[in-house]
Amino acid sequence: MSGDSLNVRELGVRFTARRGPFMRGEDVWALEGVSFSLAAGETLAVVGESGSGKTTLLRSILGLIAPTSGVVELWGRQILSMTNGERLAVRRRCGYVIQDPYGALPPTLTVLGAVTEPWNIVHRGRQAREDGDVKAKDLLTELKFPRELWGASVRYSLSGGQRQRVAVARALILAPELLLCDEPTAMQDVSTRAEVMEVLNRRAEAGMSMILVTHDLLLARRAARRAIVLYRGRVVESGGTDELLERPTHSYTRALLAALPRL
Ligand SMILES: Nc1ncnc2c1ncn2[C@@H]1O[C@H](COP(=O)(O)OP(=O)(O)OP(=O)(O)O)[C@@H](O)[C@H]1O
Ligand SMILES: [Mg+2]
Fold first, then answer.
1. Whose CA is nearest to atom 14 of ligand 1?
2. 88-137 tens-digit pLDDT
3. Ligand 1: which of 18, 56, 185, 187 to mutate, judged by most atoms within 8 Å of the beta carbon?
4. Is the CB of residue 230 less than 8 Å from the CB of residue 47?
5. Which of 106, 142, 188, 248 could form an SS bridge with 193, CB 3.0 to 4.6 Å?
6. Whether the CB of 55 sits within 6 Å of ligand 1
7. Is 43 within 8 Å of 221 (Cβ atoms)?
């Protein structure tokens, strides 16, 4: 379908459990029969309990996991059938904020170095470097990242929430057309969470497509018109976030809602 950034059809991912003398694991279908599409400029929330397959979904979209069955198409093309050069070009159109901010950043760099790194891999020359520097500083400022830590070591000097904001800046510096965010605000407090979401929403309003993985249904509703609910690797509910919150049909969605603090 033209106009879609992403098409996922009947996606299945099976992990083969490790077996040994003391371990008798069973194969896990981390995803089964997952289908949805994402229009250009649309934001989709992906909600589900721990282990429901959210991270596996994002990794399969980027071609970091080969699906056991089904198809993933980015801008009309299957990433796994591309040449290495084509795959690289498509990956550059995608940003990925991985769930674990400790694993997301190259540990030897400074904050500014970590944010500019993706830019400097793509753009060469002195002028481009200066441009990248300016962009990185603008992004860090927009994310309210403390200026006195711009030169600090990523490994030693940052809190989890600060790392996560560096990871967001790093994912945004190449102005992705599609951003995949895995719990991008899980380690933020209330005020920095709002700031990070504001930055993401601003990009979305400017035309970026986004998949937002979150446990937080209220955050999902604020950021996305549409959501899918994953439960044990299957889509058990999908539709408008307003309806999902007002008339949840699946017992899991109801349980998620019941767990929200009353406002
Ligand atoms: N590399 C792997 N090898 C084997 N099993 C895996 C692997 N990665 C994920 N799984 C299994 O697949 C299922 C889905 O995992 P996934 O990480 O996608 O869940 P999630 O929804 O992101 O959970 P969380 O909210 O805790 O991040 C889980 O049962 C997990 O144990
Ligand atoms: Mg996960």
1. 53
2. 899 999 999 999 878 888 889 999 999 999 999 999 999 999 999 999 99
3. 56
4. yes
5. 188
6. yes
7. no
CB 139 within 8 A of CB 196: no
How many of the other CB atoms lie within 10 Å of CB of 242?
A: 12
Nearest of 43, 52, 56 to residue 6 by alpha carbon: 43
The reply to whether ligand 1 has any atom less than 6 angstroms from the CB of 52 is yes
Contact (Cβ atoms closer than 8 angstroms) between residue 75 and residue 14: no
Contact 213 CB / ligand 1 (< 6 Å): no
Q: Which amino acid is at 95?
A: G
| Cβ contact 238:253 at 8 Å | no
Q: Angle 190-205/160-172 helices, nearest 10 degrees?
A: 10
Could you tell me the distance, in angstroms and rounded to a whole number, from the CA of residue 8 to the centre of ligand 2?
Answer: 18
DSSP output for 223-262? H-SEEEEEETTEEEEEEEHHHHHHS--SHHHHHHHHTSPP
Burial label, 17 (beta-carbon count in 10 A; 0-12, 13-18, 19+): exposed
For residue 64, give every residue at least 6 positions away whose Cβ sits within 8 Å of its Cβ, in sequence order, or none. Answer: none
CB of 166 closer than 8 Å to CB of 153: no
Sequence letter at residue 83 = T
What separation in Å is there between the alpha carbon of 181 and the centre of ligand 1? 16
- 39: amino acid identity, one letter: A
Q: How far is CA 183 from CA 21, 119, 127, 216, in A?
A: 36, 24, 35, 9
